[in-house]
Specification:
The chain starts with 6 loop residues before the first strand and ends in a 7-residue tail after the last helix. About 5% of the residues have low confidence. By secondary structure, it is of the alpha/beta class. Strands 3-2-1-4-5-6-7 form a seven-stranded parallel sheet, sandwiched between helices. It is globular, with a radius of gyration of 18 Å. α2 links the parallel β2 and β3.
Length: about 270
């Protein structure tokens, strides 16, 4: 995939990895439509874009609102005439607590944002993308999408759903012009804790126990390199690559290793 003179939709573009994906795409000559529920974050992204902001279009939207997403994307397609790709980046995590203590409302919210939000954008844009000579769908899953993380069972389940949906799409799109990629970032220094409605500090430190922290800027660069190379599975960070290898070698070994790193950070039964 060549990014120059292409138009992409990026969800969660108001900060963190989403903002860096937006800025990196702009630097490669792309036009970007950034979506986020955080209007102030979108304005900050536009400010960060500097002179390239004329190629950036921002829209506040809740990706869990299917009707709002459908209406907005139809407007975007009509206004830009063509969309060449979608980066489903928006996501939230859960509090670092066991499943038995997790509130039902939080469980529903996590799936609504991480899975159904991704599904909403994919469903509404896919018919248009199939008309393009070259197009991409890039779904940001997580290392937790293939590896169980204690205290993040529902988050992991939602990202595993994103993983399998994307891999199913890859099979369905084999004879089309649309490339589908699933991304597995490891530990990253982003604002996902705040965006998830969780307190930072100790909770953020728990999120960092699984491996080396990667900056959103470096992660975005690695993701776009993987997409440009046409990779169906993109592992970001040394921790993600290592745990993928270990989990395929021995699921029990990888799971126990991660549990030992995190057990002291979790409430005891």
């Amino acid at each position: 995939m060549n990014f120059e003179n292409k138009t992409f939709v990026v969800t969660g573009g108001g900060g963190g990895l989403g903002r860096e994906l937006v800025l990196n795409l702009l630097s490669k000559g792309s036009t970007v439509i950034a979506l986020d529920r955080n209007a102030a974050g979108l304005e900050e992204t536009k400010k960060c874009a500097g002179q390239l902001s004329k190629f950036l279009f921002i829209h506040q939207v809740d990706i869990t609102d299917r009707e709002a997403v459908i209406s907005l994307i139809h407007q975007v397609i009509a206004g830009h005439e063509r969309i060449d790709g979608l980066f489903n980046n928006a996501g939230i995590i859960q509090p670092f607590i066991p499943l038995k203590d997790l509130d039902e409302g939080i469980i529903e919210k996590i799936f609504n944002v991480n899975f159904f939000g991704t599904l909403n954008l994919t469903k509404v844009l896919l018919p248009h993308l199939l008309t393009r000579p070259e197009a991409v769908i890039v779904n940001i899953a997580s290392m937790g999408g293939f590896l169980p993380v204690p205290g993040q069972s529902i988050y992991c389940a939602s990202k595993a759903a994103v993983k399998l949906m994307t891999e199913g799409l890859q099979a369905e799109l084999k004879k089309s012009t649309v490339q589908a990629s699933v991304v597995f970032p490891g530990a990253m220094k982003t604002d996902i804790m705040t965006n998830s409605g969780l307190a930072t500090g100790k909770g953020e430190e728990k999120a960092k126990q699984a491996g080396k922290i990667l900056s959103p800027k470096d992660a975005a660069a690695q993701i776009l390199n993987g997409v440009a190379a046409g990779k169906p599975r993109i592992f970001i960070g040394t921790d993600s690559k290592l745990m993928d290898f270990l989990y395929r070698l021995s699921p029990a070994l990888a799971t126990n290793m991660l549990y030992k790193k995190l057990q002291s950070k979790l409430p005891q039964n």
